[in-house]
Prior knowledge:
The structure holds two protein chains of two kinds. Chain A is an all-alpha fold. Chain A has nine helices and no strands. Helix content of chain B is about 15%, strand content about 20%. In chain B, the strands form four sheets. A three-stranded mixed β-sheet of chain B has the order 8-1-9. In chain B, strands 2-3 form a two-stranded antiparallel ribbon. The longest helix of chain B is centred in the N-terminal third of the chain and has 10 residues. The chains are: A mainly alpha, B alpha+beta. At the A-B interface, α3 of A face α2 and α3 of B. The complex binds iron/sulfur cluster (3 copies).
Amino acid sequence: MNSMELPLVAFTILSQAAIGMVIISSVRQYAVEGPTGNIRAEWIVAALILMCGIAASFLHLGHPLGAVNVIKHIGTAWLSREAVGVSLVLMLMIIGFATIDQKVKPALAAGTALMGVLAIFFTGMTYAPPGYPALNNILPFVFFLLTAATLGTAISSYFSPKEKMPLLTLILGAGLLVALTVYLIVPFIWFSAGTVMQQTAVEYLSSPLYWLRIVIGLAIPLGTLIMTRTIPVWVPVLILTGEIIGRIAFFSLTLHASTNIGGI
Amino acid sequence: MNKQLGFFIDAKRCIGCFTCAMACKNLYHQELGVIWRYVYDLKTEVYPHRERAFYSLACNHCENPTCSNVCPVKAYYKRAKDGIVVHEQDKCIGCGNCIRSCPYGAPRHNPVLRKAEKCSFCWERIDSGLKPACVLSCPVDALELIDLSTYENPNVVQYPQGFPRYTKLNPSVRFRVAETPTIIRRKRL
Ligand code: SF4
Ligand code: SF4
Ligand code: SF4
C-alpha cells in the first residue's frame, strides 16, 4: 500500500468541489428562469474552499517555501500547468465575487467554468504518470470531473433557492449514476490489461475503502435522491465522506510499475 | 545517434551478490532506506528457480526521461555530451512527481532532506575517466558501461521479462537474459 497522501487528497477534493460549485452556480443562474439564490455567498465560499485546497497542497511539498518555483516548467510538466490553471481559477472566482450584480457576469461565469474544467484536466494529467499504468490514461480526469459534478452540485444545493432544487437534484442524480457506473466498471477494465493493472484491480476490489466509497459516497446518496426527489442537507456530507475515502483509495491502492520488477 | 551512455546488465553472469548496490551506497552514503541501485531477483514465473537470477537496476538515463519532463522546477537535465540524466538536488522542492512518474522506481524520497534523489551514473567519476562505482565493483563483470550510439550486440534485449516496458521513455539499458540451467541427472545404473 502506498502512502495516503492526505495533503493531495485535500487539495484535489477541495479544488474540484470549488470548481464544481461555481459551474453549477452559473448553470443555476442562466439555464432556467427564477431566483438565483445567494450567489455572493456561494462564490466566496467556493473561493475559500479553493484557497484551503491550495494551502493543503503546500503541505505535500518537502520544501513549501519553494512552491512559487512550480510554474517554471510549463513547457512539459503538467504540475506547472496545474499550478497556473488553479491560480487563474481562483483569480476568476475572486473577480466574479467582486463584480456580482444580481448574477455573475455571463462572460465571467463562462470563463471561470471553462478555466475550471481546464484546471481539472491539468490535475488529471498530473496524476496520470507512466509510473502508474492503471492511471496513465484519461481516467484521473474522468474521476476528478465526476467529483466536481457530484460534490460541487451537492454543496451548491446549500445556496440554491427552493425553485431550482429539482434542477440540482436532476444534475446530482445523473452525476451519481454515471460515477457509480464508472467506478464499478473500471476495476474490471483493469483486469483485462497488463499485470500491474490487474494487480491494481485486485487491490481495489478487495479493499473495504473501495466498497465504502461506492456505498457511502454514491449508492446511498443516489438512493436518497430517488426516494426524496430532493437533496437533503446531510447528503453533501455523505458525498464528501465518500470522496475522501475514495481519494485515499486512489492514492494508496494503485500499484506502481516498479512494484512488479522481476515478475511478469 | 548522439552519444548515450547506458548500463549493460548480464543476467546470465550476475550472482545476486549485491556488491554493486553496496558500492553505490558506500560512495554516496544514502540515508537509511534510500536505494539508488537495487538487485531484483526474478520471480519464478520468469525464471523457474527461486532467487537464482537477478537484475541489478538503477536509473536507466532514458532517452526521453519522464522524471525530467514532469519536474515542475526543472531540477533534472540530460547531458548533451553523453545522455546522462542529472538530478540537481538544490533545485528540488520535494513534490514527489518524479518519484511517482518513473516506471522504474529510480528516483527515491530522501526523508531527511525531504527531496528526491537517484543514481547519477557517477558522472563525476565518468568525467575523470573512471567507471561508475557499481560497474567497477562487480566481481563477475555482470555490469558494464556501454555507449548505445555505437553498441552492437545481437544477443541483447532492451525489455526482458520482468523489466517494465516503456518504449516512449526508451531506457538506456540492455540485458543479456538468464538462461535456464541444464539439469544433469545421474544415469540409473
Ligand atoms: S529511469 Fe526514471 S529516473 Fe531514470 S531517466 Fe528514466 S525516467 Fe528518469
Ligand atoms: S521531487 Fe524534486 S526533482 Fe522530483 S519532480 Fe519534484 S521538484 Fe522535481
Ligand atoms: S555486483 Fe555484479 S554480480 Fe553482484 S549483484 Fe551486482 S551485478 Fe550482480
